[in-house]
Design brief:
mainly alpha; 4 helices; about 0% strand
Length: about 140
């Protein structure tokens, strides 16, 4: 006898967000490695502000995947949290990148890259929310 009532496979919510967050984690890791190297060979490129920014971004790099894991199960609160975290990172990175003398030029590029990644996350979270109003 064939059971035709098998549940459909569950597709994780927000697959593009998963990819964007993965890229974000890679950028954060590379930034910390770059700062460590520059602390030795070019200390003027590894300023206190640059380290402070990198540490804050690294904290969010831990928090964001944790919330994303719950969001992938379709939990509305977790999806909202991912969007809020991404929006905060987007705004903070744009503001810091625009502050004259806040960080070395190379890190301004990193900040803009993170902001673009987070813009993608915000767009995907909003798109998901519009497409799944019942969750």
């Amino acid at each position: 006898m064939v059971n035709k009532d098998l549940p459909a496979p569950v597709t994780p919510a927000l697959p593009r967000v998963t990819a964007l967050v993965g890229l974000y984690l890679g950028v954060v890791l590379l930034t910390i490695v770059a700062l460590a190297v520059m602390s030795v060979i070019a200390p003027d490129q590894a300023t206190e502000h640059a380290w402070g920014h990198a540490i804050v971004v690294a904290v969010f790099a831990v928090l964001l995947p944790l919330r994303l894991r719950s969001a992938q199960r379709g939990r509305r609160g977790a999806i909202r949290a991912v969007g809020i975290i991404a929006a905060v990172l987007l705004v903070a990175n744009v503001v810091e990148a625009l502050l004259p003398g806040f960080a070395p030029e190379w890190m301004r590029g990193q900040m803009i890259l993170v902001a673009l990644l987070m813009l993608g996350v915000v767009i995907e979270v909003v798109r998901y929310g519009i497409g799944h109003p019942d969750r």
